[in-house]
Design goal:
71 residues; mainly alpha; 3 helices; flat; YbdD/YjiX family protein; Sel_put
Length: 71
């Protein structure tokens, strides 16, 4: 496995890309997986598809998500 590049350019580029994805609502699957493995070891990790579906459902709501309308 290749060692991740830790040069300042790549660190900044990855941080900017991550911020841009979060600003437009694209969930961060890699951060989710890292969190699950660190904080909840041994518990199952959702697939990317399940994770994305759950985040979209939470954001836009199948059953009353964050966006509400009067009509």
């Amino acid at each position: 496995m290749r060692k991740p590049d830790t040069s300042l350019f790549f660190v900044v580029r990855n941080a900017v890309a991550r911020t841009a994805r979060l600003m437009v609502g694209v969930p961060d699957y890699e951060a989710y997986v890292a969190h699950r493995r660190q904080v909840h070891p041994g518990e199952p990790v959702m697939t990317y598809e399940d994770f994305f579906r759950e985040r979209q459902s939470s954001r836009y709501g199948e059953n009353g998500g964050k966006i509400s309308r009067c009509c």
